């Protein structure tokens, strides 16, 4: 009888140990997910705030001459603690030592958008994901646009004025098309209060 009680006690202790380990792992995973979500939302909210602060100036540049537009808008969209180190990459896009860093930042955007979608997996995260991707695409388009402008500047003696105007108009429309997509994604993000909803979701599951 005594041996039976001891064996039961041992089994109970083993079960309790397994349950405690499972609970600790679950709590650790939960904390890890919480910390990741907070990090993703801080980065995303920083981008949304930056766009909000400069939105009027960016959209107002549509009627300006094409040469300063790429530089100025790129500066607006990289003026925060996450992107300041690539803010001057556009000034000399192909020869700048920041070229590789800029390309890495583009990949960081894609990675962030994917992590957000996988971490939250709801409609709000999809809208936030779209905003981040559009933001990344505008930066990339601005960079390519500046490369084009530099080539046009170097070729202005061999390319006629009319042909240069035609090429510039084409690239200008493509750039503003991407900016319009970004603005649409931003409006959708704000209208649906996506970031606040994701923050609340994070708090509820913390």
List keywords for this structure.
mainly alpha; 6 helices; 81% helix; elongated
Characterization of the model:
With 206 residues, the chain is mainly α. 81% of the residues lie in helices and 0% in strands. The chain has 6 helices and no strands. It has helices at 2-60, 66-77, 99-120, 123-154, 161-191, 194-204. Helix 2 packs antiparallel against helix 4 (123-154).
Summed up:
By secondary structure, the chain is mostly helical. Helices cover 81% and strands 0% of the residues. It is elongated.
Main beta sheet strand tally, sense and closure: none
Poorly predicted parts? 16-29
Our count of helices gives 6
Arithmetic mean of pLDDT:
80
Radius of gyration: 25 Å
Q: Which structural class fits the helix and strand makeup? A: mainly alpha
**Helicity, in percent?**
over 70%
Distance between the termini: 46 Å
Overall, the morphology is elongated
What's the structural blueprint in terms of helices and strands?
Layout: H1 2-60, H2 66-77, H3 99-120, H4 123-154, H5 161-191, H6 194-204
């Amino acid at each position: 009888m005594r041996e039976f009680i001891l064996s039961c006690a041992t089994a109970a202790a083993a079960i309790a140990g397994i349950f405690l380990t499972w609970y600790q792992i679950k709590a650790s995973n939960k904390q890890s997910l919480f910390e990741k979500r907070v990090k993703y939302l801080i980065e995303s909210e920083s981008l949304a705030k930056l766009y909000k602060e400069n939105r009027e100036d960016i959209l107002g540049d549509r009627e300006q001459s094409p040469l300063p537009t790429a530089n100025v808008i790129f500066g607006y969209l990289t003026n925060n603690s996450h992107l300041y180190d690539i803010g001057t990459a556009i000034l000399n896009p192909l020869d700048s030592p920041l070229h590789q860093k800029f390309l890495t930042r583009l990949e960081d955007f894609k990675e962030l958008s994917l992590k957000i979608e996988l971490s939250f997996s709801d409609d709000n995260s999809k809208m936030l994901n779209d905003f981040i991707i559009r933001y990344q695409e505008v930066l990339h388009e601005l960079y390519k646009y500046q490369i084009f402008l530099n080539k046009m500047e170097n070729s202005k003696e061999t390319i006629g004025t009319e042909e240069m105007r035609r090429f510039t108009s084409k690239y200008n429309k493509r750039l503003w098309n991407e900016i319009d997509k970004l603005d649409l994604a931003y409006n959708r993000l704000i209208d649906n209060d996506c970031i606040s909803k994701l923050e609340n979701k994070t708090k509820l599951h913390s």
